[in-house]
Predict the 3D structure of the following.
Amino acid sequence: MIYVYALTEPPCVPSPDVKGLEGRPVEVAVVEEVAAVYSRHDGGAAARPEVENLWAHERVVESCMAGSRGALLPIRFGTIFADEQKLAEVITRHAGMLRAGFDRVRDCVELGVRIIEARATEPEEPPAEPTPAAPPTTGREYMMARLAAERRRRGDEARAARVVREVHEALFRMARDAVEHVRTGSELLVTCAYLVPRGTEAAFARRVRELAAERPTLRLLCTGPWPAYHFTPSLTVAEPTHG
Amino acid sequence: MNPAARDEQSLEREVTLLELVDRLLDKGVVLSGDITLSVADVDLVYVGLRVLLSSVEAAQRLQLRACEPPR
């Protein structure tokens, strides 16, 4: 069995010090101008999704990034082939899309930014407790109070969304591409991935800190540089062959 | 190390782990391998992480308070 970590433009020279899953040596095979980075295993157990295995996978991919000037496409965790022949068949089938994928991420790294709206993470004010001085005495007053609270909440949400948008647009100007994912819940959380040119990571992180300093209601957390996980091609399933 | 810096450091570690898991299990090139992870396997990771990362939200709250100017 072989476990695959990444595909790169050749040549790819991962550091010999970096071991793959189960401590196995990392190997490289070139098929159709695509270098596949993999390690050999006795069974499928190597791909158990445990935190230490995830880090082992990531370390191999990062060592390939460091050891290759060419573009790199990280493979999703847990991809195993019976042998090199099977892997080569899949690469050959998708060679065109993989090369287009290399073009998209060449000379770039991915940076992750979590934008958290700070107001929403504060403990909620207890609105249910009536103020002893002015309890709503009639149904109408109660409904008016509810309406006012709802308007306030919507206003806060719209304001938060606007601030988040400003931040995203400012960062997007420094990026070649971006993927944005808004999570709704008890707090406004936006996770973004930016594809930025290699060498501009520090400037990008500095901009994140500036944007955070200008906006006390936001918390911004920047991680990376990552391999371009969010900017990989989705390979279409091969057409069934006729005849 | 002061407590605020320690909170910030552990928060960063936890956020980095979350970002790692989101990328490795949900992004990256999907090659149709001979064996691939099942949805149940992936779900298990997230269940495990929830235990491991239970303090992310609390840490964020702590950090917010730590950012407030001293009285």
Remarks:
- The CA atoms of residues 18 and 49 of chain B lie 8 Å apart.
- Residues 3-26 of chain B form the longest helix (24 residues).
- Residues 58-71 of chain B have pLDDT under 50 and may be disordered.
